[in-house]
Amino acid sequence: MSWISIGKALLLIHISMLLIISSTPLSLGHSFSSNESAAFLALVKAIKTEAQLVLENLANNNTALASEHANRASALITASVHGRIAESNLTLADDLSNVLSTLKSSTESSSDASTASDIDIVISDLDAIIDGIIAARIDPDQLDNSTIQALTIVELLDRVLINYGDAYEVGFDMTNMSMMMGDNSNGMNSMSPMEIDSSNNNMFMANTSATEGFELVNITSYQTAQVLATKVQELFNSQLSNSSADTQSLDNIATALQELVSTMYNRGSPNDVMMIVHTKIHPNFITAFGLEFST
Question: Which residues pair with 96 in a beta bridge?
Fold first, then answer.
């Protein structure tokens, strides 16, 4: 057989493998169909998370970290986000921008307990404004819709992965499941090839304990990832854990979320965090809530 024939045969095999992979839900990882309400709910929860971390860091006398989280909260309200909020209520959109600016400027000058108390009031105002925006922008029926709630958690999990990746400066997109395939060009030299465990239809790696090359370099992003993961767990427990979905899938999600929070608080490897989200949490959300993929 000529080298050209061999090359064609290999190409056909490669294409066939891609077709098989593309028809397997797990291979799509986090690429769920987007929903504007879920994305918006995840955004405002991310803002509240940064505000919470402002207070926590002030309580620990770390004004530098408090200021960084205030800056991150403000940065989440882009011109585009402000415009979308203004479509429902211009006053609330302006109020949100103003209170975040106040939070930012207050932390930059915070130096005593009285200032911290003032910031506590600012954050209370922020929470009230956000609650008003949610009421103005999202139909109550959607807030109680299990699919919207599940998609909101999926959106927040993406933010968890992004922040954890920034914290360890991994150099690749942790929300992209294909990054677990061991491509040396993306900086994951320690990763092993994926395998299929046919007994439980989960994907795992032969070696997920390798942490070489990963070092915590951004404590601000690490804190954000930690608190977001905790909020995801709280949201699931309060909104979805007792739903009418498949009981085994719900149990699997609860277990995996606890593993995720514990792994992150113990500064686990980014590899392990990706594995938990992409191969334990996402597949069970698909089964439990019938989430669809983007096209």
Answer: none
Alpha-carbon separation of residue 81 from 40, 41, 149 (angstroms): 9, 12, 20
What span, in angstroms and rounded, lies between the C-alpha atoms of 143 and 41? Answer: 9
The pLDDT score that the predictor gives to residue 110 is: 53
Could you tell me the end-to-end alpha-carbon distance of the chain, in angstroms, rounded to an integer? 39
Residue 59 token pair: 């309580």
At residue 26, what is the residue type? L
C-alpha distances (whole Å) from 178 to each of 88, 183, 215, 225 are: 38, 9, 22, 21
Q: How many CA atoms lie within 13 A of 289 on its CB side?
A: 28
* Tokens coding 194: 């994926």
Given a contact cutoff of 8 angstroms between Cβ atoms, the answer to whether 172 and 161 are in contact is no
Q: Rounded CA gap, 232 and 154, in Å?
A: 9
Q: 58 is written with which tokens? A: 């002030």
CB 270 within 8 A of CB 205: no
Provide φ and ψ at 20, rounded to 5°: -65, -45
Task: State the helix-helix crossing angle for 146-167 and 282-289, rounded to 10 degrees.
Answer: 170
Compute the distance between CA of residue 135 and CA of residue 154 in angstroms, rounded to an integer. 22
How much is the average pLDDT of 95-120? 81
pLDDT tens string 202-256: 333 333 333 456 899 999 999 999 999 999 999 999 999 998 888 999 999 999 9
Distances (CA, A) of 33 to 89, 147, 155, 253: 27, 11, 11, 20
- Dist CA 160 CA 221 (whole Å): 9
